[in-house]
Amino acid sequence: xxxxxxxxxxxxxxxxxxxxxxxxxxxxxxxxxxxxxxxxxxxxxxxxxxxxxxxxxxxxxxxxxxxxxxxxxxxxxxxxxxxxxxxxxxxxxxxxxxxxxxxxxxxxxxxxxxxxxxxxxxxxxxxxxxxxxxxxxxxxxxxxxxxxxxxxxxxxxxxxxxxxxxxxxxxxxxxxxxxxxxxxxxxxxxxxxxxxxxxxxxxxxxxxxxxxxxxxxxxxxxxxxxxxxxxxxxxxxxxxxxxxxxxxxxxxxxxxxxxxxxxxxxxxxxxxxxxxxxxxxxxxxxxxxxxxxxxxxxxxxxxxxxxxxxxxxxxxxxxxxxxxxxxxxxxxxxxxxxxxxxxxxxxxxxxxxxxxxxxxxxxxxxxxxxxxxxxxxxxxxxxxxxxxxxxxxxxxxxxxxxxxxxxxxxxxxxxxxxxxxxxxxxxxxxxxxxxxxxxxxxxxxxxxxxxxxxxxxxxxxxxxxxxxxxxxxxxxxxx
Length: 479
Known about the structure:
Order of helices and strands: HEEHEHHHHEEHEEHHEHEEHHH
Radius of gyration: 62 Å
Number of strands: 10
Number of helices: 13
Shape: flat
Strand content: 5-15%
């Protein structure tokens, strides 16, 4: 028996739908139940194993080393603090001893005297962490520098502070026996940035990590028994330079295990769960994945069948549309043939009429051109007249403004001359009065005798001087 092609998609769809009950029965199991029969995978699929994934992620997370915030500059800061403290104590010691000696500069012979012992006792009470005054006092009183001695004392502090120093190895939650990774930061209270985490240093062995008490004991053990006070003083400057950063460690580990999974693969026909097997988390996840895969396969097959049917329908639609288009073209050709004959006759008649009326159309065209030219001339003349009128109006307005300005200027000049005349009239009267007075005095001078000539001459000089002053004030020249 040969099946038609149209029946094949339906058979495939029915076959896939027949697998759906198997998937639904597989999904009915709950965690902890026992499988009643073998469950076989209808299709190949892959599923995440939760237990194996958890174990794998834990193993990968342990590969990310524990992060320690580290301040490498802490050793240099401790050294600067110690040197500054010694220098300050030295200055105070010499100032106080000089004052105790009555202003005299201390000498080596002053060691052991009462002022020396009293100043050392005061400094010992003021200083906190056991400044070794017995070792420093003789050098200070003699004026010897402290640089060489401090360099020797600071060597063990520098070596110890170069290693990570924690508050306590017990309370910091560090994994025992595992290496750590140092991340350099500016401050222990500041969380490292992403760039600082990327620049983390190489792994550091756990044996190199020190606690603050152990670091101080190492420094004290470096000094001999007769310098125990010095060792304690140097060890007191040990400071914390590393702290564990659990948040940064967890962030790096979460970033590392992101996307890490352990998968179980099953082929088509492979037994997923055997009869009598207890359903655990892995089996339950496999059954759920098998159900999803079966449903997806069913949907894909159904989609393929629907696409096949849709393809045939679209093909039929294409042929129907092509047939309709052909019929339309045939009808259009028939209509065109029917309209061709009368249009030819009309063209012949119209051609004859056009040939006969050629002269009429020429006359009409000439008349229209003449009208257009006259209209243009009228427009040009109107525009020129309007522009000429505007120009004349502007000229008239400008002339009126100029005449008004000229009349105003003449009026102002007349007023100015009148004011000047009012000012100069009294001045001219005074000048004439002085001239008449001078003439009268000259006549008297000619009539009087010798004894009065000097007096009249003096009066004439005074009158001439007053006349000259009035003329200069009025702007007149002297005659």
